[in-house]
From TrEMBL, chain A:
Belongs to the LOB domain-containing protein family. InterPro entries: LOB. This is LOB domain-containing protein. Residues 10-111 form the LOB domain. PANTHER family: LOB DOMAIN-CONTAINING PROTEIN 21, LOB DOMAIN-CONTAINING PROTEIN 4-RELATED.
Automatic annotation (TrEMBL), chain B:
Residues 3-104 form the LOB domain. This is LOB domain-containing protein. Pfam families: LOB. It comes from the Eukaryota. Belongs to the LOB domain-containing protein family.
Length: 175, 148
């Protein structure tokens, strides 16, 4: 006679969705609580439970919560934007960063002009006094986040287009 | 004999003529599909592509590949780490911009103050000179000309 296994009322969200018994050392249980079913549902839809399990097993236990959070974020964004996912957000942030660098360069140039004029006026009015010019540093070169991520040569699609990942936005929209 | 796409080679299956992967996983780049398969799985990717118009699938695969590579290199944060870094850099740049604008404002204020001072000095000189010119008229007449 088959033994009756009582359904655990404390099954994690993953095991509930996967309709399986939630074992005591379930790898998903600490991170996918039963009161957050949507979180695992999204992660499972994008990555798949087995892939998530493999990723979690690869990382140290103390980093698994952060891993789950980043997977959940990626999955949510991917479901909202099935084409570009997080890359859309990255491209938008890159654009914002370039605009800010541009504004910063203009502001610093303007400040330099004011400082130069002030220095000239000071030297005329107070020839013996020391005029302080507000120092400013050169804006740091923004190489773009993709420089820190090594890609294997250039990315080409079947049309032979070259993707320049150092420019933003680098997504070529196929319309 | 048709050449199998990288996906079908990886999955060790026949590559049909209407293979959903073949336009985006050419056989000369096996690592592309391997990365995506490792993170997302073939069935998930096939489902994602099937749900999209054909003209959006190439961009989708490119983005999936990039995200998969990020996740392979950084299993904890994936491409979310890149997003966090960008947010941090934007915050730093905004702070620098605000500081620079504040410094500019100081110069503008000091220039305005100097201009006001110069205008007032010139006016005082003018008043003094014209006051001397009309001194013989007496105080009341000076007031009538607008001098206080």
């Amino acid at each position: 006679m088959r033994g009756h296994e009582p359904r655990s009322s404390s099954s994690c969200a993953a095991c509930k969705l996967l309709k399986r018994r939630c074992i005591p050392n379930c790898i998903f249980a600490p991170y996918f609580k039963s009161d957050e079913p949507k979180k695992f549902a999204q992660v499972h839809k994008v990555f798949g439970a087995s892939n998530v399990s493999k990723i979690l097993i690869e990382v140290p236990e103390e980093q698994r919560e952060e891993t789950v959070n980043s997977l959940a974020y990626e999955a949510e964004v991917r479901l909202k934007d099935p084409v570009y996912g997080c890359i859309g957000a990255i491209a938008m942030l890159q654009r914002k960063m370039f605009e800010l660098q541009h504004d910063l360069a203009i502001a610093r140039a303007r400040l330099a002009r004011y400082a130069a004029n002030s220095s000239a006026a000071c030297s005329i009015m107070h020839s013996s006094a020391a005029c302080s010019i507000m120092p400013f540093s050169e804006p740091p070169a923004y190489d773009g986040f993709l420089n820190s991520f090594s890609l294997t040569s250039s990315e080409m699609n079947q049309d032979g287009q070259m993707y320049d990942y150092s420019q933003a936005p680098y997504i070529i929209r196929h319309e | 004999m048709n050449t199998r796409c990288a996906a079908c080679k990886y999955l060790r299956r026949r590559c049909p003529s209407d293979c959903i992967f073949s336009p985006y996983f050419p056989p000369h780049d096996p690592q592309r599909f391997a990365s995506i398969h490792r993170i997302y799985g073939a069935s998930n990717v096939a489902r994602m592509l099937q749900q999209l118009p054909v003209n959006q699938r190439a961009a989708t695969v490119d983005c999936l590949y990039y995200e998969a590579q990020c996740r392979v290199q950084d299993p904890v944060c994936g491409c979310v780490g890149v997003i966090s870094l960008l947010y941090q850099e934007i915050h730093n740049a905004e702070t620098k911009l605000a500081k620079t604008k504040a410094q500019i404002a100081l110069f503008v204020d000091s220039n305005s103050a100097r201009e006001d001072f110069e205008v007032e000095s010139d006016l005082n000189v003018l008043l003094h000179e014209e006051g001397n010119e009309f001194a013989h008229l007496g105080p009341s007449n000076q007031v009538s000309f607008g001098f206080t």
